[in-house]
Design goal:
mainly alpha, 4 helices, 79% helix
Length: 68
């Protein structure tokens, strides 16, 4: 829902503020990394099964929303 998109946006802004400039495009690529790299997938999925996929989907949807 929109709350998930808002959380994804807040997460991207957190990265922007504390780590590096993170455009919507870079953030979408990061979402793909969360599911394609076993280390990232393990980090998320240890909290909830398929959480990495959920986060990637929220990140992708946030990017699509930013383009409208």
């Amino acid at each position: 829902g929109s709350a998930d998109l808002d959380l994804a946006g807040q997460h991207r802004e957190h990265i922007n503020r504390w780590f590096y400039e993170c455009s919507h495009t870079l953030y979408a690529d990061l979402g793909l990394l969360y599911v394609s790299d076993s280390r990232f997938r393990y980090y998320y999925d240890k909290y909830e099964s398929e959480l990495a996929d959920y986060v990637k989907t929220a990140i992708h949807s946030n990017r699509v929303r930013s383009e409208t």
